[in-house]
Amino acid sequence: MWKWRLTAAGINLLLGIPAVVPLFLIWYYLANGPLADAGLTSREPTENDGMTLWLVIVVPVVAVFGIIWWLANDWVRPRVSLAPGTYWTAGAVLTLWPVWAAIVTSVA
C-alpha cells in the first residue's frame, strides 16, 4: 500500500513542474483583466491586444493540464487507501508544491 502512496506523491510532484505554465497563465490573465479592473493590480503597459486572445491561450492549456492531472490521479486513487477528499486535497497540495518552491526561490 505504501508504494502506491509514494507513486501518487511522485506523480503529483512531477506534474507540479509543468503546472507552472497553466498557473502562470491564469495569474497573468487575472492580473491584467478582472483584478486590474477592480484596482487590485496594475495592467501590463504593453498588453494592448485585449483579453480575448489570452482566453484562447489560457483555456486550452489549463484544460489539457487539468485532464492529464485528473487522469493520472484517477488511475492511482483506487490503489491508495485514503478517503477521496483526503487524496484529492493531498494531490492538489503536492502539485502546487513545485510552483510554490519556484515562487519562493525567485523572490529570495
TrEMBL record:
Keyword terms, alphabetized: Membrane, Transmembrane, Transmembrane helix
* Residue ranges crossing the lipid bilayer per the database entry: 12-31, 51-72, 84-103
Q: What is this protein called?
A: DUF4328 domain-containing protein
